[in-house]
Here is the input.
Amino acid sequence: MRVVTYNIQYSRGRDGEMDLARIADTIRDADIIGMQEVERFWQRSGMVDQPDELMKLLPRHHAVFGSYFDMDASVVADDGTVSNRRRQFGNMLFSRWPIVWTRQHPLPKTHYDDEFNMHQGALEAVIQPEGRPPIRIILLHLAYISMEKGDGERMAQINHVLDILNRREAEGAAWSGPASLGEDDWSEGEAAPANPESVLLLGDFNMVPGSAPYVQMITASAGRHKLVDSWKAVGNRARDGFTYPLDEARYGRPGIKLDYIFATEDVAAEISDAWIDNEADGSDHQPYWIEIPNKN
Here is the structure.
């Protein structure tokens, strides 16, 4: 099972060109794909419905889009007819296997008078891989306010996500309990969906190893499990590698790590490999991959 997280910067590559096909080609061999910064109806990306285009480019994957930023982009004709469109920005999840259920979580936001800041979000999903127990995915994008100013906001967002995980047993899945209400069978004859404890959290965390938000991730608990940085789980040092390239002459280093996949201890113990695709050029970030061997 190959899992990848990729902030696609709405498909604007290192060459400045918008190219969704390049994005899809880079990650199409993954079984589970988490993308951040996917958008709909923005002028900068040609008013394209990127979720729709990406689903066409990855037709062998199930998909769900979760927008955490939503503004009006409607067009009103001369006769008053409204073409309803929303200018959206969010996370998109692809899976080789069914995405059983999902829900969207807005994350805490701080108002600043002197710096642009926008809502960010987390997309929660349960996936049922073939031949494996179901697994919970939290796909997220944390605040990108500067490291010094924004760590408090990122800490609040991380704590919000941890609270979601720690409420798992008390809340249950998307629905639970008897569903038949006479003719209105909300279950449509299905059993209550899976509510797994095993979790992968993936995305653009906008934090560096050793920062307060990073320490919070690896010391906090999600249910009965600690969370493990998958990069370290296979023997790498946390500070090695980078997913966000920098101008080395200007910053004194080739890049920083902003993108991660964290796992509950039971899943982390199975991870056999982790790597950063430093050749990908479709975004200002690099895709980060992990591999979990089949149990068969």
In short: The chain has eight helices and 19 strands. The mean pLDDT is 93.
